[in-house]
Amino acid sequence: MKLTVDALVCEANGVCVGLAPEVFELDDDERLHILMPEPPAELRDKVRHAVRSCPKAALTIEE
Ligand code: SF4
């Protein structure tokens, strides 16, 4: 699994951060950082849920 964010589409509303704080982080400038671009197996369901929940569809998973 490889995770990317389209920074031009992300509106920094923090939905993904709330659902998977181990993987997503917003900085003080409201830029989203992916802390684990290749999340370990135990976090993958959580990450998929966060990706599906992004209201802007800014996150992409490559399997
Ligand atoms: S849920 Fe989507 S729009 Fe919101 S911070 Fe995460 S990537 Fe950005």
TrEMBL record:
GO terms for molecular function: 3 iron, 4 sulfur cluster binding; metal ion binding. The keyword Iron applies. Its cofactor is [3Fe-4S] cluster. Keywords: 3Fe-4S, Electron transport, Iron, Iron-sulfur, Metal-binding, Transport. Signal peptide: none annotated. The lineage of its organism: Bacteria, Bacillati, Actinomycetota, Actinomycetes, Streptosporangiales. It comes from the Bacteria. Transmembrane segments: none annotated. This is Ferredoxin.
